[in-house]
Specification:
- The chain is of the alpha+beta class and 579 residues long.
- The chain is built from 13 helices and 21 strands.
- The strands form 5 sheets. It has a 6-stranded antiparallel β-sheet with strand order 1-2-3-4-6-5. Strands 13-15-16-17-18-21 form a 6-stranded antiparallel β-barrel.
- The chain folds into 3 domains: 1-98 and 344-408, Phosphorylase Kinase, domain 1, CATH 3.30.200.20; 104-295, Transferase(Phosphotransferase) domain 1 (Transferase(Phosphotransferase), domain 1, Orthogonal Bundle), CATH 1.10.510; 415-576, Beta Barrel (Lipocalin).
- Helix 3 packs antiparallel against helix 5 (206-222) and helix 5 (206-222) packs antiparallel against helix 8 (255-264).
């Protein structure tokens, strides 16, 4: 591992700077994300809007810089500039990153429900061509997955992000035994190396990326991971079990496309497609023989949500006018960036505009900002196309893993202990409180949520009394393939109790329904299912620093990603009187 691995995974190392702060000549407007290596802000200079990232100075940043300098492709994230901050005794790199409007690939799949033809043309072929260019310049991404692909709204094409785990040909190795990445996407040869480890380094190859792309494709076609999640002997399944045939899991998938996917997941690298170009050729051949079944959406259309029950008008209540504290209204208006905003992260080092220059040697020191002039601000250093990154002085220290897209960790932390009947639930201990935007956000002004689509059921108060429940509890959401939470508007919602709630045992499923506000997801649970099968009436509302749970950037009015895999659930006041 690094020389210094003392920082705990998931511990936010960046700063929570106030909106309006000047950094490198940019004005910070809002926090986009935070995680184990730093904080990312929406920033502006004039009419230019960027993602500005503050990260500890770190050898991994140099690795990512080297990777991105070698690659120039429209489907690969761009870095616009770099610098150090603060000017006196700098501890952070400042990265100015491309800001792209679009959706993460998994959210896009939920939102658009593509057909097989659309998926191949719009997603897989462009990704294969991009990956071919990445590999051609001696780079292995090492963390291909849905959340590291963003579907750009401007042209509908994918953009590959997060090169924080990348391996560059000729670069010194920074890890022992297991390289960074996400466990569910690791190749069999990587796991075999780990089992037989003799102290050497695993030589990551393009085959690892193609395997991970196969796992991603399997999920896109079936909404299941081919070998399950880490809740169980995941490595053994990857090494020994064949995934279920794609067409058996989802009959809507054309068999030819399912066969391509299964070949990508062969245990031996020699049995897979040898290069991204070979994969693209196989996809193109299958597409050329496609029939009408390729135009059927891969998933059934979601059922129409029932119309909300109208609430009877309430008599007006006399109120006393109260003026909000100064600045509160402005903060509420500022809110979060637009729902379509997805910033492309993944750069932890110094980058110049020239991407065709020779491989970058290890960075020893980084170019400082130019002296500030007149006001307390710093100008971003945009380096000339020289092919050199810096001079010579050892970086200050190693640090925690990179934060990308929302808050992707380079090494995945231990999981929460699995409940006895978890089924589709999987959680990460380091993420249990929150990841991404919610971790660094200050408490927000509480906004009254829209009225719930379902009333509290009769008998809820009797349940509270009979089972001696408290006024609040904590719940765990179901998670997607990349361990984030995806929710649909006005849709059924199922969670599990994280711990006992009075005499109702932990792991008890709670059933309810979601509804969306401007930038938060609200939920009401009206039923608890005991281990005996008995169903109890309850009425709990989601709460995360106020009613509801904040959405991540990139959410839409119908599909949202959350910043947390757990939340509070409070007894609805009206249920206390609902006899």
């Amino acid at each position: 591992m690094h020389e210094d691995s003392s920082a705990s995974w998931g511990e936010p190392l960046g700063l929570a700077l106030e909106p309006g702060t000047q950094v490198a000549g940019y004005t910070l407007e809002a926090i986009l994300a935070t995680g184990g290596s730093g904080t990312v802000y929406l920033a502006r200079r004039g009419h230019q809007r960027v993602a500005l990232k503050l990260v500890p100075r770190d050898v991994w940043g140099e690795r990512e810089v080297d990777a991105l300098r070698r690659v120039r492709h429209p489907q690969v994230v761009s870095l616009l500039g770099y610098g150090l901050w603060p000017e006196q005794r700098p501890h952070f790199l400042v990265l100015i990153l491309e800001l792209v409007e679009g959706l993460a690939l998994d959210v896009w799949a939920h939102e658009h429900n593509p057909s097989a033809r659309q998926l191949v043309r719009q997603v897989l072929l462009p990704l294969a061509h991009a990956l071919a260019q990445v590999h051609a310049v001696g780079v292995v991404h090492r963390d291909i997955k849905e959340s590291n692909v963003v579907m750009r709204a401007a042209d509908g094409l994918p953009v590959l992000v997060d090169f924080g785990s990348a391996r560059c040909e000729g670069a010194p190795r920074l890890t022992e035994r297991m390289p960074p990445g996400t466990r569910e996407y690791r190749s069999p040869e990587m796991l075999r190396f780990s089992r037989e480890w003799d102290g050497g380094h695993y030589p990551a190859t393009p085959s690892d990326d193609l395997w991970a792309l196969g796992v991603t494709l399997y999920w896109l076609l079936t909404r299941e991971l081919p070998f399950g999640d880490r809740d169980g002997p995941l490595a053994q399944r990857i090494l020994e079990q064949a995934p279920r045939p794609v067409h058996d899991v989802n009959p809507r998938v054309p068999r030819a496309l399912g066969d391509v996917c299964l070949r990508m997941l062969e245990k031996e690298p020699s049995a897979r497609y040898p290069t991204p170009e070979a994969l693209a050729e196989a996809l193109a051949e299958a597409l050329a023989r496609a029939d009408d079944t390729w135009d059927v959406p891969l998933q059934p259309a979601p059922p129409r949500p029932p119309m909300p029950t109208p609430r009877p008008p309430e008599p007006p209540t006399p109120v006393t006018s109260v003026r909000a504290p100064p600045g509160r209204e402005a903060v509420a208006r500022r809110g979060q960036p637009g729902a379509w905003l997805v910033m492309l992260l993944g750069v932890l080092g110094v980058l110049f505009w020239s991407r065709n220059s020779p491989p970058t040697p290890r960075v020893e020191s980084l170019a400082p900002f130019p002296p500030s002039q007149g006001t307390q601000r710093q100008e971003l250093a945009l380096a000339p196309p020289t092919g050199e990154v810096g001079h010579s002085a050892r970086p200050s220290r190693s640090s925690a893993p990179a934060l990308v897209t929302q808050a992707t960790l380079r090494e995945d932390p231990p999981m929460l202990k699995s409940p006895k009947s978890r089924a589709p639930l999987a959680a990460t201990a380091g993420l249990a409180a929150c990841v991404g935007l919610g971790c660094a956000s200050a408490p927000r002004p509480v906004v009254d949520p829209p009225p719930p689509p379902i009333p509290c059921p009769a008998g809820a108060a009797q349940t509270y009394k009979a089972y001696r429940t408290l006024r609040s509890t904590s719940v765990l959401f179901e998670v997607a393939a990349d361990r984030t939470v995806i929710m649909h508007n006005n849709a059924p919602l199922r969670v599990q109790l994280i711990r006992k709630w009075g005499d109702i045992p932990e792991d008890t499923p709670l059933l309810g329904r979601t509804w969306f506000g401007k930038d938060r997801v609200y939920g009401r649970f009206t039923e608890a299912i005991l281990p005996s099968g008995e169903r109890l009436p309850i009425c709990l509302d989601l709460d995360f620093n106020g009613p509801g749970v904040p959405m991540r950037p990139g959410s839409t009015r119908t599909v949202a990603r959350l910043n947390t895999i757990s939340a509070g659930a409070d007894v609805a006041p009206e249920s206390m009187d609902n006899q």
